[in-house]
C-alpha cells in the first residue's frame, strides 16, 4: 500500500484517538480488502445458491428476474445510510458505537446484542450451508457420507476451527485470503453463468418475468400454500438474506487504511457488485432449467437437480469445487466480523469476561480470545439447537429464520437514531463520504420502511416462530438491561472520558508494538 502515507496514518490515528480508542489492531487492509471482506460475507455463491428454492419454489422465474433486483435495492438502502455514519465514526464494531453516540448507552447496548446474536448465528448458518453444499456436491456422491448430527457437527468444527486459526494468525493473511475470495467469487459467478447458458436447451427470456405460484405441494412445500402476491414477496427473502453482512466493512474499520473513505465505499460497492453478478448468475441458471414446474417440485434440491441434468460432469465438479472454496472463505470473513464486534463491545465492558475478550495479541495483532469465542459459540449454537425441536421443527431452523431480522434490526437502530441526530450536538460533524442531509434522511426513511417489510416477511409461515423468538429476545434484553446492565455498563467513551483515556491509549499501543 505505497499510497498510504505518514499523513494518512496520522489522520487515521487522530480519528481513532478522538473517539477514545487505541490503535491496537493493525492497519493492513487496503480499500479493496475492506470491500472484499464484505463481498466475501455476502457471497452470492453461498446464499444465492443455498437459498435458491425460496425463488424457484415460490414465484418462479419472476422471483429472480424481478425479485432479485428489488430485494437487492432493499439491502442497498441500508448500506447507503450506514455508509454515511461509518465515514463519521470509523471504529471496529461500528454499529455498537454508532448506536451509543447517536443515541445513548441503552440503544448502543441493544444494537450490539442484536448484531452480535445475528453474527454468531449467521456464522453457524453459513457453515451449515457449506456443509450441505459439500454433501450434495462431493460428500454423498463421491465419499458416500450420510447426513447426521454427528457428521454435521464434526464437519462444522473442522471448517470453523480452520477459519478461526487463519484469523488468529493476523489480519494480513486474512486480508490476502478475502482478497482472493473477491476475485474467486467474481470469476466463479461468471463461469457458472457461462456454463448454464451453454447448457441451456433454449433461451426463454420471458421466463425471467413470468409469475407463477408454486407454494404448497407444487414447490415441494418450501412455502405453505398462499397467494401469488405473497409468494412473490416471500421470494424477496432470497436477495435480502443473501445481500447482508456488509457491516463487516465497518467492523474492520480500525484495520483499514484511510478508513473514513474506504469503509463507506467498501460497504456500498460490495452490495452493488454482489447484486449485479448475482443477477447475471441466477438469470443464467433460470434460463438453463429444463422445466420450471419440475424445478419447483425439487424444492431445496433444485440447484443440484438442474446441474446434474444439464451440465457436463467434469465442468460441474470444477464449479462445485470453486463454489465450496468460496463458501469456506465466506465463513472465514464472517469470523473476522464476529470477532471484531466481540472485541469492540468488550473493550467497553459490554460482555462477560470483557477483559480477556478485548485483549489483542502483541504477536499477531488480533483479538485472539474474541476470534475463538465467536467461532466456538457458532458451533455450539448449531449443535445445541439441532438437538432440540419445537413440534416437528428443529430450534436451529427457527433461530436461523430470526438471524436476518436481528441483523437488520441492528442496522436500523443507528440509522433511525442518525435520522434525528443529524445536525445536533450528537452528530454535528460528517465524514469525507457525505451524501448531504436530504439524501441521507431519504435513505434513512427508506431503511425504516424496509425494516418493517423484512420483519413482516420474516415471520410468515413456515417461519412464524420467528415472531415469538424475536419478542422473547426483546423481553429478555429488557430484563437484563434494567436488572443488571443499566447500573454497570458505561458505554463507549464520550466527552471528557475521551481526554481521560489518552494515557491508557498510549500504554495500550505500546503494549502491542504500535509505533
Summed up, what is this model?
The chain is mainly alpha-helical and 515 residues long. The protein has helices at 6-18, 31-50, 53-56, 62-65, 67-88, 94-101, 105-143, 149-168, 171-199, 228-235, 237-242, 248-251, 259-288, 292-297, 302-310, 313-346, 354-357, 368-387, 395-421, 437-458, 465-488, 496-500, 502-511; strands at 389-390, 393-394.
Structure description:
The structure is a single chain. The chain is mainly α and 515 residues long. The protein has a single domain, classed as Amino acid/polyamine transporter I (Up-down Bundle). It is 71% helix and 1% strand. A two-stranded antiparallel sheet has the order 1-2. Strand 1 and strand 2 form a beta hairpin. Helix 2 crosses helix 9, helix 7 (105-143) packs across helix 8 (149-168) and helix 9 (171-199) runs parallel beside helix 13 (259-288). The mean pLDDT is 94. GO terms for molecular function: transmembrane transporter activity. It comes from Sinorhizobium fredii (strain USDA 257). Keywords: Membrane, Transmembrane, Transmembrane helix, Transport.
